[in-house]
Amino acid sequence: MAGFPIELRRAATVFLLSAAMLCLAACAPPRGSHIVVGAKNFTEQVVLGELLAQEIEAAGAGPVERRFYLAGSYLCQQALVSGRIDAYVEYSGTALSAILKQPLPPPGQRDTAAVHATIARLYEQRYGVRVGPGLGFEDTFAMVARGDDARRLGLRTISDVVRADAASPPPIARLGVGYEFAERPDGLPGLAAAYGLRFAGDPRTMELGLLYRSLAAKQVDIVAGNSTDGAIRALDFVALKDDRLYFPPYEAVPLVTDAALKRWPQVGVAVARLAGQITDDDMRAMNLAVDAQHRDVADVVREFRKRKGL
């Protein structure tokens, strides 16, 4: 881990020591013959699930079952605590607000380390789940507009949308969002209140994979996407800056059950190896390779691991 920031090296070391201590504890009753890694139902999550699975296999824990395309954070959480999966990658802000039901940091106060410490403590206390060190990037929510609209209307920030929509009729009137974002405490209701956003009618809710298709087809004018989506660059879209810093940190972090760490300590080794390995650009490139170039996820991940010396 030479070359990583000191905080990241410490987090990885703590995670490894925790895994080793759990390994020395009394063994839990057998749950199954192999590790199960989960992922949500969009490209980046499948890439991260495959990355975690490949690294666990490389660490010598045996074959990993992939249980991908689970429909959102709540289903992944239920699968984790019920033992149907052993690990998956979550985002710290999602964990804080949507899963652990903690208050969001005030706008403008984004303390990534404090959020990580809070979710690590609560996951262990409530669910017997370890939060690993961050993978190195954040995937925050992003309001995304078509590039030609952004250039024509001078849209660079979310506040610019409010300014543009003062015209009549408002040029950015139709909003598309994923099902979770429409209801989450860190989602649309709070964002609309923070910025004074107004749209024509109710937002169109849809599967995450359909958001950019709807934007490209001009069925909506703006969508709530994710900052590392490969489609943003590929389709000439623009992610607008969260200039009021409404969104909390969304650091990508592996979640692993204590039971899995007791039975397969190699999982802790794999998670520590992945600490700090992925930059924002790395993640965008892998997403783009899968979404736009239609490459196989496993091949994309293998190439990434080879470049990183994993």
Task: Please give the CATH class of the largest domain.
Answer: Alpha Beta
Number of discrete domains: 2
Structural class: alpha/beta
Extract low-pLDDT stretches.
Answer: 20-31
CATH superfamily of the largest domain: Periplasmic binding protein-like II
Q: Which percent range describes the beta-strand content?
A: 15-25%
Write the layout of secondary structure elements.
Layout: H1 6-24, E1 35-40, H2 43-58, E2 64-70, H3 73-82, E3 87-91, H4 92-99, H5 112-127, E4 129-131, E5 141-146, H6 147-153, H7 158-164, E6 175-178, H8 179-183, H9 188-195, E7 204-206, H10 211-216, E8 222-226, H11 230-234, E9 237-240, E10 252-257, H12 258-263, H13 266-274, H14 280-291, H15 297-307
Helix pairs in contact: 1-13, 2-13, 2-15, 4-5, 14-15
Structural write-up:
This protein folds into 2 domains: 6-138 and 249-307, 3-Layer(aba) Sandwich (D-Maltodextrin-Binding Protein, domain 2), CATH 3.40.190; 141-240, Osmoprotection protein (prox), domain 2 (D-Maltodextrin-Binding Protein, domain 2, 3-Layer(aba) Sandwich). It has helices at residues 6-24, 43-58, 73-82, 92-99, 112-127, 147-153, 158-164, 179-183, 188-195, 211-216, 230-234, 258-263, 266-274, 280-291, 297-307; strands at residues 35-40, 64-70, 87-91, 129-131, 141-146, 175-178, 204-206, 222-226, 237-240, 252-257. It is α/β, with parallel strands linked by helices and 310 residues long. The chain is built from 15 helices and 10 strands. The longest helix has 19 residues, at 6-24. The chain is globular, with a radius of gyration of 20 Å. Strands 7-6-8-5-9 form a 5-stranded mixed β-sheet. Strands 3-10-4 form a 3-stranded antiparallel β-sheet, sandwiched between helices. Helix 2 (43-58) packs across helix 13 and helix 2 (43-58) packs across helix 15 (297-307).
